[in-house]
């Protein structure tokens, strides 16, 4: 299927840095939602064509409204007192456009809009626009503005209110297969969360639009294979190679976490996973947590002022969970898949695959930490949180490889400084990690991408005809007319 890229060309953090004022707003308008946006169903009103002949129209109850004007336009669609919305920012922004979503569900929009961008008291740019749709896009680059004033003087139909669901400081843009000159993405997982890889995407764009793009760091980019989401990424760097030619290098949400410090935490008793995530990351909406962990608890310590990525790795490791961002706009936390998803067709597999065998791991050791609410003595081990030292002692849990032979060299894997590992989970973790390391064969092959998902278990036919199965641990997606993946699969024993 053809690759396409959806680029959220939006000024970053405008939700947090914006103050919105509006004239003629109804009492039920929530002006604070004008920037973040809401979706409002068609509401029955006494406006012309405002009640509908079907059940699509609802009575006004507790629905969300960003902005409805009290005043209505006249018979010529003109407002005697035009609604005005002013958006002020605490910082200066640069954007290549604006998007106004009026009321798509009822079909209402404002036809005439005057927009003025300011820097302080200086007018940076002003223009009057004519809209003919409920989703109106203004393609206009303005640099270093800190205020925008919108005046809505005319509606699309007579005797209508001005209704707005969102004003986006930017534009959602889509590049199709004809504009994407190169594309690659690399997604990886660790089935035991030894580390949490950063998924990346690189693309070359030859834009069909005569727009001087300002690709900004951390702006969102989504890549699709047809209608299937490959991944959600954030711009790390970009280059302009010509008037309409650009390259993008992007990272996933884990890459963003690598650049953010976290406050740390200390939980001396079993604490809900959701509470720990909230303590470390704030808004847990960035996570999609599998139902297997609905009642999960952890206890222990996360060192302050390390990266959020490092903290997430410690949490996932202690759970025995997998972390992945592929195919979603969130960070997924889920158990290692053990059930077969499907078979990978030999008809869609390229020739030339190989199986690589790793060294034998002879022993796994996981350190368990028992942290108490006691102050340490001179010879005691301790951690420090919020200026207070806490005494701890350790125990070690071991798992031996039952398949070693006398000629195997000693190869021990040790996991310490994972302070969420304790006496309740350390032995289980050691056993599970040893089971993981006993799977020594990794199958490397290329295949046409056909809805396969990272970490899932599939059955495959190896190049010499043997049937096997395993979990996909890495996918390097490339496209050249056909979307294919160079895939690494950890085979079952």
Walk me through the structure:
Strands 1, 12, 13, 14, 15, 16, 17, 23, 24, 29, 30, 31 and 32 form a 13-stranded mixed β-sheet that branches. This protein has six helices and 32 strands. Among the domains are: 12-172, Sandwich (Jelly Rolls), CATH 2.60.120; 340-358 and 440-491; 363-437, no CATH class. The two termini are 34 Å apart. With 493 residues, the chain is mostly beta strands. It has helices at 14-17, 33-36, 253-257, 273-281, 308-319, 426-437, and strands at residues 3-10, 18-22, 67-72, 84-95, 98-101, 110-119, 122-130, 135-138, 142-155, 161-164, 166-168, 170-175, 180-188, 200-206, 220-225, 228-240, 245-251, 265-272, 287-289, 297-302, 322-324, 331-334, 340-343, 354-357, 363-371, 381-385, 388-400, 412-415, 441-448, 457-461, 467-480, 482-491. 9% of the residues lie in helices and 46% in strands.
Question: Quick gist of this model?
Answer:
Among the domains are: 12-172, Galactose-binding domain-like (Jelly Rolls); 340-358 and 440-491; 363-437, no CATH class. It is built from six helices and 32 strands. The protein has helices at residues 14-17, 33-36, 253-257, 273-281, 308-319, 426-437; strands spanning 3-10, 18-22, 67-72, 84-95, 98-101, 110-119, 122-130, 135-138, 142-155, 161-164, 166-168, 170-175, 180-188, 200-206, 220-225, 228-240, 245-251, 265-272, 287-289, 297-302, 322-324, 331-334, 340-343, 354-357, 363-371, 381-385, 388-400, 412-415, 441-448, 457-461, 467-480, 482-491.
């Amino acid at each position: 299927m053809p690759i396409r890229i959806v680029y959220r060309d939006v000024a970053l953090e405008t939700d947090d840095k914006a103050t919105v004022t509006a004239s003629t707003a109804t009492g039920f308008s929530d002006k604070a939602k004008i920037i973040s946006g809401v979706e409002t169903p068609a509401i029955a009103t006494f406006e012309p064509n405002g009640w509908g002949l079907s059940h699509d129209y609802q009575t006004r109850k507790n629905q969300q409204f960003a902005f409805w004007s009290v005043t209505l336009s006249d018979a010529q669609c003109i407002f005697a007192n035009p609604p005005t919305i002013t958006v002020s920012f605490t910082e200066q922004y640069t954007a290549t456009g604006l998007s106004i979503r009026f009321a798509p569900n009822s079909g209402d929009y404002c036809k005439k809009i005057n927009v003025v961008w300011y820097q302080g008291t200086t007018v940076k740019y002003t223009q009057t626009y004519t809209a003919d749709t409920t989703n109106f896009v203004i393609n206009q680059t303005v640099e270093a503005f800190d205020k925008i004033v919108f005046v809505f003087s005319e509606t699309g139909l007579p005797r209508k209110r001005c209704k707005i669901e969102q004003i986006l400081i930017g534009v959602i843009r889509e590049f199709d297969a004809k504009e994407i000159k190169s594309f690659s993405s690399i997604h990886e997982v660790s089935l035991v969360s030894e580390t949490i890889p950063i998924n990346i995407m690189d693309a070359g764009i030859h834009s069909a639009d005569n727009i001087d793009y300002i690709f900004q760091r951390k702006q969102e980019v989504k890549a699709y294979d047809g209608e299937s989401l490959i991944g959600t990424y954030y711009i790390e760097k970009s280059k302009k190679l010509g008037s309409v030619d650009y390259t993008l290098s992007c990272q996933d949400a884990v890459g963003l976490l690598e650049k953010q410090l976290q406050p740390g935490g200390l939980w001396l008793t079993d604490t809900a996973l959701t509470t720990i995530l909230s303590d470390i990351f704030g808004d847990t909406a960035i996570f999609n947590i599998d139902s297997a962990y609905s009642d999960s608890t952890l206890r222990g310590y996360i060192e302050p002022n390390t990266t959020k990525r490092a903290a997430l790795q410690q949490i996932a490791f202690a759970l025995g969970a997998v972390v992945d961002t592929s195919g979603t706009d969130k960070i997924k936390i889920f158990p290692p898949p053990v059930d077969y998803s499907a078979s990978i067709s030999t008809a869609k597999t390229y020739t030339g695959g190989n199986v690589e065998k790793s060294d034998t791991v002879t022993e796994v050791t996981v350190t368990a930490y028992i942290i108490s609410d006691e102050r340490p003595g001179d010879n005691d081990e301790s951690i420090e949180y919020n200026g207070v030292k806490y005494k701890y002692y350790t125990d070690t849990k071991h798992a031996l490889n039952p398949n070693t032979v006398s000629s195997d060299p000693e190869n021990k894997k040790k996991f310490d400084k994972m302070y969420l590992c304790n006496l309740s989970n350390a032995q289980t973790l050691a056993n599970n990690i040893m089971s993981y390391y006993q799977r020594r064969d990794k199958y490397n092959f290329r295949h046409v991408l056909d809805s396969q998902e990272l970490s899932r278990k599939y059955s495959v036919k190896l190049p010499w005809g043997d049937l096997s199965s395993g979990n996909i641990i890495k996918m390097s997606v490339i496209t050249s007319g056909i979307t294919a993946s160079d895939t690494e699969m950890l085979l079952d024993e």
